[in-house]
Every structure is written in structure tokens, then in C-alpha cells.
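call fold(seq) -> C-alpha cells
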Amino acid sequence: MLSVSRSIVLPESELVERFLRADGPGGQHVNRTESAVELRFDVMHSPSLPDDVRTRLLARSDRRLTDDGVLVIQARRFRDQSRNREDARERLVEILRGALVAPKKRIATKPTRASKMRRLDGKQQRSKIKQNRSRSWSHE
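ret:
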């Protein structure tokens, strides 16, 4: 059981782990042990996720999310399998907790009168600088 929040708990049966050889330092040891972990979680078909959380997760443009709605997390930060396994699970929980909170609606605002004036003043100054350049070129 992987606890995400009070209301969301993922059973082990929904998590698919695959162990593979990690790249990086480790000498000959790295070629023999499968210390990297690939954790897969099917967001699309998980009965443990509420619909709003599922929708937010699937709407994210996350490269770890496959076209089938499966979230794939690879952990190869550490040299031993157990720490990588723990790391992958922590990252999954972090992603799921991020989707629990609904994003705030943006309230459209109008620019203030002073900010409009500053913008127009800046445009006028720039225009004068460019006009002065063209005058100086024509006299040469």
C-alpha cells in the first residue's frame, strides 16, 4: 500500500516495477546488478484515483506519461536497488499530490492607467531616438 493522502491509497497491485541495469559509475558491479527501477502506474485505469485527479494528471504535458495513460518513473540515482525503489515511489507520490490541488482560476485584470502611460512614454522616447538617427544619417 502506497499512501498518497488520507483519501487516496494505492494498492501494490496497481504498481508495476521493473528492474534494469543502471548506467553510470560502479565499475564491473554496474554491469552485473539491476539496480535501476522503472515504476509504472496506470493513471487512466486506476480505480484508486478520483476522476478530478485523474483528469488533471492526464492533462499535464509530462513526458513520463505514455499515450496509454501510464505514468513511467525511472529511478537510477542510487547504487542500490532498494533506495532507487524508494526514490521512484516517493516521486510518484509527489506527482500525485501535485495533482490533488486544483489550480486557481486566473482573474483577468486590466492594466492601470499609470502603466499604460509608462508604456506609451517609453514608445515615444524610442521613437524620438530613432528619428534622430535618421536625421543624422541624411546630413552625411
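Residues 2-100 form a domain with the Double Stranded RNA Binding Domain fold (CATH 3.30.160.20).
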